[in-house]
Specification:
By secondary structure, this protein is mostly helical. It contains eleven helices and two strands. 74% of the residues lie in helices and 1% in strands. Helix 3 packs across helix 8. It starts with a helix and ends in a 14-residue tail after the last helix.
Length: 308
């Protein structure tokens, strides 16, 4: 019986760990899938926006600490809010500089521009900050009501899961019931018809980049607080994993991005827990290969036919 309880507790730890990791993947994957759904472009600089959000929160938290502001909730609110605003501005700027001028260019051109922007942002932060890992303050306070289960779920994990759930509800409401959400759906379905109906397609695309960047910044703040350190390269790894999650769920599908993130998180968690942590990335990309072989459109993706 004792062994069974130990095994059950270990299983729950892996399950909740995978849920936490999958929630972060989902937040970042939403940016990929929203942009692809609107303009059919993979924004490979999205991971760097996640990284910039984390660095912005670190800088704000450090300045507040120097100023003597030590109230945990206030520091978290100001740091996360500043990161969201700054990352959103970056997302908007990246879209205007790297993608908007290539709106009608061959498909390869914006792809190369996206990769170039990713490399540029990486090296920009490298030169502006450092190549070393920097300590990230624990912005999320400990919750007393979690003490009985603190060995399974901590305050960081609880906050990440709850934040992702709330954001998903708000994003669903935004897309289904607001004017800009309807414009986004119309633009995704047919840009030419949306223009004829008076929708400002460029405005919709910019807004999509802003929302995706804001979600990535939230993920950067949460994972930075949980891990306790960041560096200029975290955006590349997280971006690749989130892109994998988006493809798993079905690129262009918002529920698919969330499902793909969770499936990827659980796959990595259980794979590393029961087999070996050395193969964490192998588990993730093996799952991706299997999905692409047996269901290329993703778990919730729909097969589409193109007329030639």
């Amino acid at each position: 019986m004792d062994n069974l309880q130990v095994e059950l507790q270990y299983f729950l730890e892996l399950f909740l760990g995978g849920l936490t990791k999958g929630s972060i993947y989902a937040l970042i994957a939403l940016g990929y899938t929203m942009v692809y759904g609107i303009i059919e472009l993979i924004n490979f600089a999205h991971g760097e926006i996640y990284m910039i959000g984390a660095f912005t929160a670190l800088i704000i938290a450090t300045v507040l600490n120097i100023m003597g502001v030590n109230h945990a909730a206030l520091v978290l609110l100001l740091s996360a809010g500043g990161a969201v605003v700054y990352a959103s501005a970056y997302g908007y700027t990246v879209e205007k500089i790297a993608y908007s001028p290539l709106r009608n260019a061959p498909r390869l051109s914006p792809l190369i521009s996206a990769i170039g922007m990713s490399i540029f942002l990486q090296n920009y932060v490298l030169l502006a900050q450092t190549s070393n890992f920097l300590p990230f303050p624990k912005l999320i306070p400990e919750f007393e009501f979690l003490e009985p289960i603190s060995h399974i779920m901590g305050s960081s994990e609880f906050t990440i899961i709850c934040t992702t759930s709330v954001i998903m509800v708000l994003l669903t409401i935004l897309i289904k019931f607001t004017k800009i959400g309807k414009a986004m759906r119309a633009t995704a379905q047919d840009k030419s018809m949306a223009l004829l109906l008076g929708i400002n397609v460029n405005h919709v695309i910019s807004f999509t980049f802003i929302i995706g960047s804001a979600l990535a910044a939230v993920g950067g703040v949460l994972i930075g607080s949980q891990m306790g350190q960041i560096n200029f390269y975290i955006g590349f790894i997280a971006g690749i994993k989130a892109f994998t999650a988006a493809v798993l769920g079905g690129i262009g599908s918002i529920p698919g991005a969330v499902l793909g993130g969770l499936v990827l998180g659980w796959t990595e968690s259980f794979g590393t827990g029961y087999i070996s942590s050395d193969y964490e990335d192998v588990f993730a990309f093996t799952l991706l290969v299997l999905i692409l072989i047996f269901k290329p459109s993703g778990i919730l993706g729909r097969n589409t036919s193109q007329k030639v």
